[in-house]
Specification:
Length: 292
Amino acid sequence: MKNVPFKGIIAYPITPFDKNENVDIHLYKTLLEKLIVNGAHGVAPLGSTGVMPYLTDSEKEAITEATIQQTNGRVPVLVGVSNLTTERTIYHAKFAEKAGATAIMIIPMSYWKLTDDEIVQHYDAVASKVSIPIMAYNNPATGGVDMSPTLLKRLLEIPNVSMIKESTGDVQRMHFLRKELGEDVAFYNGSNPLALAAFAAGATGWCTAAPNLIPQLNVDLYNAIENNDLKVAQEVFYKQLNLLKFIVNKGLPRAIKAGLEIQGQNGGYLRSPLRPMNESEVSELSQILQAI
């Protein structure tokens, strides 16, 4: 298997803002620290949960540096560096590598629909400028591009590309990747409600925002899988399933912020146009958390 520095629960922190919608680095470090001490096997700033597309270049750099400083080598760091253009993606990839990131994650973001060849060239161009591992992230709901298993197989031929995060919600794609590439591929589940099925299909890890709210249940699921204890894995998974569905359906930044506040923690503010969940949604989330 290629260089794969991540295994287990990869936690995605939110990017909190102050009341003036400026990034709150101090609060970010506080929330990040909780993920680390509560057992996350890795952290991944600047993903969907971290509202990466809503940040300026300087804000992305500040989050990257803050993450490296706070983790201080205790867990590996996977930095999201995606951008519409190849030039900006390369810029952020190089910055992340220089800052000390363990690996980077790239989702092909598209206004015009990209061809397979364009996507391969995009990844290859970035890979040629950095030496750290790259995770190819497939999430058509947010990136606007659905990378087929055949395309993902092509991307894995690029030396630096050693990991795939699959977030389409189609577990059969994971089975296909395992069947076609065997142990040479490390794939990660990015669809929260499919965590158990993904691990059963051979996922190396689970990329999720859920540890912001239920870190122990997430780690317990992974440990049960590692111990081949299917009964415990099922019990732990179905205990958290309603929450996993809710945070995806309502939007990760909104749901995590609200969940933190329900639990008595400061989740910061959101950046426009994102708005907090309404009273009914907060009530529903509170009931789910209480049930857990």
